[in-house]
Amino acid sequence: MDFTFNEDQQALRDSVSRFLMVEAAPEKLRDIWQTDAGRSSELRAKLAEQGLTALSVPEAHGGLGMGDVDWALMNQELGYFGIPDSLADTAYLATGLLTALPEAHPVRAAWLPRIADGSARIALGHPVNPWVADAHLADLLLLAHPTEGGTEWHALAPALVQVTPCASIDASRRLATVAWAASDATRIADAAHGQVLADALLNRGALNVSSQLLGLAQRMLDLTVDYAAQRKQFGKPIGAFQAVKHHLADVVTKIEFAKPVLYHAASALARNAPDSAVRASHAKLACAEAGWFSARKGIQVHGAMGYTWEVDLQMFMKRAWVLDAAWGDRAFHKQRLSDALLNNGALLGPGATFNTLS
Length: 358
Description:
alpha+beta; three-stranded antiparallel β-sheet; 11 helices; about 55% helix
């Protein structure tokens, strides 16, 4: 199995990184987050010009037709630069859900081209998430409706829902509860097909935030290394002290151990492997731990000032905290992992590393 990324994937990642370094600098994000909407239509348009909104849209609808592995790379960059996850909600998750509908479905045909050109913002409601991100700005809401026979999916215009904002410690997130009524007119997938869509969306949602958490962990590490090189105690940079070096080395270890887990999960989802769910849960746990650990060590090195609005660390730290519980908290994913590993037919041990779990 080849775990390396090809030249096109690496070139796209580097291009996006250079773009976000200029257009999504921390001082610019602070200004955006302090507005009522918390979003910048100008930045969104520039992201669309870079092709990010078209990544997963099929070529027949004006997109690039890329998949889960590509998004595992892109979401790391979005996490590293603190771009709100609602971009990926539209361009990756909603696109995947709509693409899974029949080709002749009117909602699929109407919205995929708009996602590709960046003119649509779609909010997603899944049973595993208590709140919906960016519901107040959505042009369309795709909402799950659990029933006895499975999970139906409904597509609703903003006029058909009532949005109640919910505060978050992360200034970049705009969460809300959404009140709405299911009807035959809004249903786009019945319970049987909808359950398949809901399961696939959950796995991609977990992979989505896992990638962002890994990017956040790396950003917090980089910020902490820079601070340790500049902050002086007893006449020398604190980064010269062995205890600080150990803290930072431990973070590097967490990040490097999480990367192959994430990439294996992305590969499993891309291949629709039978163990996709457990791989996604493993990735969520490993990347959440890396994000949480990087935030903790970053605060230890920065001291209490790391919590203040003026210091960049707090922007990424708070985001890592809230994404830790998004698309299933740790207890949820530990249970899925436990169910797979304790299965009598589970393939365990070094010889089964590259096999799929039953």
